[in-house]
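In this section we walk through a basic example: taking a raw amino acid sequence and producing a predicted 3D structure, encoded as C-alpha cells. The instruction is simple. Fold the sequence below.
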Amino acid sequence: MTKKIPKVFISCGEYSGEAHACRVVEELQKLNPKIQFYAFGSKALEERGVKVLFDYKNYSFSGLTEVVKNLSAILKLKQRISDSILELDPDLVLLVDYSGFNLELARALKLSGFKKPIYEYIAPQLWASRPWRIKKIKKNIDKVLCTLPFEQAIYQQAQVPYRYVGNPVAISLQAPAQKQDFANFDEILVGLFPGSRKSEIQYMLPIMLRSARSLILRHPGKRFKFIIAKAQNLSEDIFYKYGYKQDSGIQMIDGSKSNNHKLLSGADLLWLCSGTVTLEAALYGTPHFLAYKSNFINYICYLFFRTTTKAGLANIINQKDLVKEFLQYSATEQNFIQETENFLSNNPGEIFSTYYHQQKSLLNEFRQSLTGLETAKLVAEEIINACT
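The resulting C-alpha cell sequence is shown next.
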C-alpha cells in the first residue's frame, strides 16, 4: 500500500513570520522531502517549493484604524483561505505569528468542521495585551509552539497543549558583520530601521531623518554615517514619499535580509522601530534604542489593551530596561538626539561613553540567556509527529 504524502498549509501574513516559516519548511524537507506545502505567504516561501495560494503583500495592515478601514477585504480573504484549506484537507495547518488574523482563521476552520490539527507557532503576546485571547486559543488551537520561556506557565495554567521550542530569532542570526562592510573605522555608523509596514515608515522615518540631520549639524567634528535599512517587502517609493532624498548624505541599502542583518550586527548604534528587529539587535549585542509612533486612535487602543508598560522584547523578557524606549509622544527628535549623545564620549581619544559599553555588556549577558535550542528543527519534528 502506497504511503500517503503529507500536506501542510502555512499561514503567515507578514514578512517576519514568513522568514521563520521558511526555516521550518527547510527542516521539514530534510525529514520528508515529499511533503506538499501550501501557504498564505509570498515569494520567500515560493522559492522554497511552497505553493503560495494567497499573497499577503496587499493585506499587510497594522493598527485598529487600518484594520477597520480594510475589514471587508480582510473578512473576504479569511473566508477564501478557509474554503481553500477545507478543500485541500491538509494533514496540519501551521499558523505563524500574525495572531489577529490567524486566530480568526482557526476559529473559522473549527466552525466549518475542520478536524485536522491546527498548530500555532509564535503565539499571540498574551502577556503584553488582551490576555482574554487565551479562551480563543484553547477553543481553536490544538497545540501552541511557544517561543518565550515564561509563556509556558500561561499555557500550562490554561491547560492548553504546548511545547517550548526556543526562540527563532536567536537561531536566525547571521555571523556578525564588520563595521568596515559599511563605513570607515573612524566613522560612527548608525543604522536606522524605521519599520516594515507603510504606516510605520509614515510615522517613524521623518523623525529619524530630522534627528540624523540635526546630529550632523550639532557635531561637525564627528564623522557620522547614517544608513537606512529598507524592509524587503517595501518599495523605495514609500521612503521618498516620507522625506528620504538620495543627496541628503543618508544612505539606504538594498532591503535583503542578509544586508539588514549585516547592518544590525556591524553598526555602532541602532535606531529601531519597535518590533522583532529589537530582539535581533539585542541578540547581536549592538547598543540601540527603540521607538514607536502611530495615529492617536491606535495609540489609545494600545494603552487600553496593554498589560505591560514595556514594548521592547528584550526589556519584556529581561523584566527590566536594557534599552531606552520612546513611545508615541516621547518619540521625538530631541529624545533621539539626546540618547545618541549619551552613547558618545566627551573624552579626547574616545568615541563611545561608559554608558555605551555598559549597555553592550548587558546585551551580551542577555544573549547568553536566550540561545541554545534548535527552534525550526523542533517545530518540524512536532509537525512530522502530528502528521503520522
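Looking at the output, two observations stand out. The chain has two domains: 7-166+373-387, 179-370. Residues 27 and 377 are 6 Å apart (CA to CA). In the next section we compare this with other chains.
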